[in-house]
Design a protein that fits this description.
By secondary structure, the chain is mainly β. The strands form twelve sheets. Strands 1, 24, 25, 26 and 27 form a five-stranded antiparallel sheet that branches. It has a four-stranded antiparallel sheet with strand order 2-3-4-5, with no helix packed on it. It has no helices and 44 strands. The chain has two domains: about 1-295, 7 Propeller (Methylamine Dehydrogenase, Chain H), CATH 2.130.10.10; about 310-505, 7 Propeller (Methylamine Dehydrogenase, Chain H), CATH 2.130.10.10. Strand 18 and strand 19 form a beta hairpin.
Amino acid sequence: MTLTGHEDTVYSVAYSPDGHLLASSSYDGTVRIWDTRTGEEIMPPLWGGRGPVTSVAFAPNGQSVASGNGNVVDIWSLATGQEAMPPLQGHSDWVRSVAFSPDGTLIASTSEDKTIRLWSSENGREVVMMSGHTDWVHAVAFSPNGRLLASASKDMTVRLWSLTGQAIGDPLTSLYDEILCVCFSPDGHYLAAGAQSLCEARIWDLQTRDPTPAIIRNQASVSSIAFSPDGAKLASSGYPTVRFWDPRSGCELPGSWLAGHLDWVYSISFSPDGRSLASGSSDCTVRIWDVASSYEPIVQPQKMHSGQVYSMAISPNGLFIVSGSGDHSVRVWDVFSGEARCQPLLGHEGSVEQVAISPNARYIASASSDYTVRLWDVENGDAIREPFRGHNGSVLSVAFSPNGRWIASGSHDRTVRVWDVSAKEAVVIEVLHCARSVHAVAFSPDERLLAAGDDGGYLHFWLSGTNQLARAALQTGDSDIISLAFSPDSARGIWHVRGYHGSAAHQ
C-alpha cells in the first residue's frame, strides 16, 4: 500500500505492537495513524503546533504514541486523539528521536542540544539526563531487555548507557562519519548503526564491543536501519531505496531492493511478525511492502495522472476505480490488475473536482472548474451528449440519485442543480440555492432527500425532485464542508470539514 496524506517529508514510521496500526510523522507538523489492513487513517492527524515532527514511537501497550515536536516530546492517546499529558519539556533544541522502553515505563528522547533524556511515561517527569556527545544526537534505542540505551550522534560516535545515565565504556568509533541511526538485534547480542557520507553500516558484538567482519555498504547515506524480528535480515534505507542484508556476512540478499519511492527514504520499520516493512520518504508517502515472499509492494502504486488527484470513486460492483485530476482528465482503472480500462476521458477544460459512478456502474459523472458536468460511458470512455451547462462558477461536487435518473451538482456559484440523466439533451430540472459555495452533495439511499454542504458550515436539505426544503438549514459550527454521506438506512449523515489546521468528521 502507498499511504498518502502527508504534505511534506515523512521522517519516521513505527508499527503498533499488534501490527494493526502504523504511525508516521512528518515535516508537515503532523502524526498520522493508519490501519495497516486497509491503508485508511483511523483518526484526524495529531497536530502539536510546534513545527516538524521528526520521530514517532508506539507504547508497548499500543494505547499511545510519543512524538518529537520542536524541543518537546508529545504523548498522544489513541483512544481520544488528544495529548495524554502535558508535553515533556527539558530539551533546549529540536528533538531528533524518541523510543519507549520494552516495559513501557520510560521514554527516551534525543536532541540537537547534544543530550539524551529519560522520562517517566506515567507522569512525564524527567528521570535522568545523559550528556557526553559533543554534537547532535540523532537516534536512540533500548536494548530488548530494557537495561541499556544506545545513541548515535553527529559527533561520529555510538555510545552505550545504563538507565542511571552512566556511560558504559568508551564510545564505539568504527564509523568515522556522522551517524544517523542505531538499532539492537532482537536477541540483544549485536548493535548496528548507519553513517551518512560513508554510506556504510557496521555491526558490533556487544559482548566483546568489537565490530563484526560484516560491513554493509549502501548506495547512499544510511538514514535508517532495522533488524527483522527473527534477526535474519538487516534492512537499511537511503536514496531512494530500501535494501536487505545478511547481518552475519554483510552480503546483500539477492533480489531484495525495494524501489518505488521517488526521494530519500528516512525511516523503516518491520511489522511485529516480520512479514511486511513500512518506509517513510521525503516524497511525502508511506509505503508498506511484502518482505516475506516477494520484496514487492503489497499493492503496486500506479502513475495515474500528471496532476493532483482531487477525487476517486469505486464502482458499486467493486470492479473499477474512477479518478479525476487537475490535469483535466478522468481515468478508469481495473481494481485487480491496476491497469487502465480505457484511454483517459478528455474534454474538460479545467480541473476535474469530483467524480461519481451511477448505481448500475454504466456511467461516470464528472464535475469541473470549467463550469460544466460531463457524463461518460464506462465501457468505451465516450462522452454522452453535450456537457451539462448552467453553473456560473466552478462545479465542485457531483452525485447520482439512487435510481440513477438524476445527477446533482454543487458549485462555487452557490447553487445546487439537478439534471435529468435520461433526457436526450442536458436539462436542468431544479436550481436550489445555498448561502455559500457548495463543496458537497448527496442523495439519501431512500431517495427522499437531497443534501448539500457549503463552505459556510451549513447543511441544506430538500425533498428529492423538488425545490421544497425538507427542513431549515443546519448550522454545524464548522467551516468548509467538503464531503458528506448518508448512512445506508438514511437515518444519519456524516460530513467532513476542512479547517485551518486539518480536517475532522462529524455525525
